[in-house]
Amino acid sequence: MTDFKKIEENLKTEAGRLLKEGLVTVVLSYGKGFDENHPMPYAAKTIADVENIVFNQYCNYNMARYLVRYPQGTKIAIAVKAADSRAVIQLIQEEKVKRENLVILGIPVQGMKNPKTGEVIDSKTTCGLYNPVLYDILLGEEVHGQKNALPYEVLAEYEAMDKDARWEFWEKELNKCIRCYACRKACPMCYCDPCFIDQSKPKWADKAPQSPGNMMYHLTRFHHLAGRCIDCGECSRACPVDIPLYLFHKKVAKECEEMFNQKAGMSIEDKPVLVDFRVEDSDKILE
Amino acid sequence: MLKKTAIENISQLAAVLMEKGTLLAPVKEVSCHNFAEISDPQKVDLKFYNTLMSPKSAFFPHREDFVKYKVGKPLSEAEHTILNLKPAFLFGVRPCDVKSFEIMDIHFNAAGIIDPYWRARREATTIFGYAYDINQPVDSADFYNTLGIYAADPEGSDIFMVKKDKELLLKSITPKGEKLLAELSALEKASSGDEKYYEDYIKKGKDYKTRFTCVDSEVIAKKIESIFDNTDFWTKMSAACLSCGICTFSCPNCYCFDICDDTLFGKGTRSRVWDACMFTDFTLEASGHNPRTQVYQRLRQKVSHKYSYHVRKYGVISCVGCGRCTRQCPVNIDIYSIIEAALKA
């Protein structure tokens, strides 16, 4: 793997070039935070801004989250790691952003760390890929020959639980929720405006952090992301109270994959599974 | 009065306090500590840096029910919630958080604006402040020194505790604390060596350095007011902000709330629930108009409220530098850096 410093250098070079040549108006990447272990998502808009770009093991943010903030038609360069590139693809599929307006800067990387826990981020909480699925410019050498744990392996324990045990599990976990909404805000696929939970007519759930409102919020959000979640794990990392949101998302993703033979965000030619109809589609859901 | 106990015997002290009333103390959760009402004295855990959520919920719970009513029935049949409070003990509060109660009193317990719920809880509660461990490194997010607060400030606590190796020294600060401490016979008497250790610890607290910038409340208030229209500045500061609510929910000084009516099958509850200025619907008006649709406007509001409007209205900054908003932020937005940048803007 190309080392972090070299990737940072390449990122700066490409960002500088793209801004200088006027090919993009903004470069979405990572910037200096209050110290080295706390970098931030960063939008570089001028050549002078490029100096602030950083890349290190804590740059785990999914920059695709910020794409929908810019008006359609804005020329954007975006730095993506493997899962992030899947989010970009999914957003293209959902027509939130157009392929021709993007310059995708791919970062093949492994060993990213969660700044809060110091743990290496792997296939437990993410899709576990190392190389971006889609890119225009690659900022490092692709990672090959690494043994990948499969993204759904972590589900074994969860799937061993029966229906009642699962309900109990989620009731306990979701009761911890304080309804700060960091999960939906960190999620690149959560762009509904307004989010159903913010509506007052009808009011779908009460505002206080308790059951059944917590259940209503999370179960609805989980299902809104069926076939769309690209398994970047940002929701779980953003959660201040450590709810393992990734488990539910992975479970739904796995079922979608089994039923429709398609993984979210793998090709811009695909249509999102729940807006597409094929005669050969599984009827399992109706049984 | 100074007393002491071995930290490993802390559950004995907890049990005594539980007999006297409600005990709120730090407990270990999956990867953090939080204040919780203690039902098992063994659960009290003082091996924490600071809690994830601030202790404000001891006086200002996330949800507070006011009235239970039935739709279509006369108002006289509605039931008001009456607090039957036992004495409460808020155990192990860091000095910066203790300071936050004083600032929150301005809103809930000052002449003219009295919140009976806040006041009742405040009066029923004895606060056990707990100095930061000055032998451990300071967290990089903390900046309470900037707000004039130090690691071992006993002001505001009824009883103040410092750690002496494997022992806990407890010093009474107020008459309320003095009375309680005298009653706690489970504690041992402290020696004159302990007295000296305690006094030295309080002094050394001043040398335990967090991040520091010279911030004069009048100067920063004026400065932030003057850059209100500097959209470039606020857009830059908020470029990463996700607009979630964790900074305000974990903040010991954020007090915004919403009054909610929740009705199901004709039965309703009117309650007060925490709200956050970082939420899009916080300023959504009944007409559909929203004066703060942009993230930069919301972040500007949060920072301005704490460091400018609050100073203008009440004379103090509404921040104690506990570092929670920075530590919890999913994208590492740091209010201290924003203040530093504002001073240079």
* Average pLDDT number of chain A: 94
Number of helices of chain B: 11
| Beta strand % of chain A | 5-15%
Encode the helix/strand succession of chain A as letters.
Answer: HEEEHEEHHHHHH
Most extensive chain-chain interface: A-B, 40 and 39 residues
* Main pleated sheet of chain A: 5 strands, mixed
Cα-atom radius of gyration of chain A: 19 Å
Structural class of chain B: alpha+beta
Radius of gyration of chain B: 22 Å
Give the CA-based shape of chain B.
globular
Oligomer: heterodimer
* Overall geometric form of chain A: globular
SSE topology string of chain B: EHEEEEEHEEHEEEHEHHHHEEHHH
Arrangement of strands in the largest sheet of chain A: 2-1-3-4-5
Portion of residues within helices of chain A: 25-40%
Quote the beta fraction of chain B.
Answer: 15-25%
Q: How many distinct domains of chain B?
A: 2
Secondary structure category of chain A? alpha/beta
The total of beta strands of chain A comes to 5
Low-confidence stretches of chain B: none
Straight-line distance between termini of chain B: 49 Å
Give structural notes:
The complex is a heterodimer of chains A (287) and B (345). Chain A folds into two domains: 135 residues, no CATH class; 130 residues, no CATH class. In chain A, 29% of the residues lie in helices and 8% in strands. Chain A is built from eight helices and five strands. A five-stranded mixed β-sheet of chain A has the order 2-1-3-4-5. The N and C termini of chain A lie far apart (47 Å). In chain A, 45% of the residues are buried. With 345 residues, chain B is of the alpha+beta class. Chain B has two domains: 184 residues, no CATH class; 112 residues, no CATH class. In chain B, β7 and β8 form a beta hairpin. The radius of gyration of chain B is 22 Å and the shape is globular. Classes of the chains: A alpha/beta (287), B alpha+beta (345). Chains A and B meet through β2, α5 and α7 of A and α8 and β13 of B.
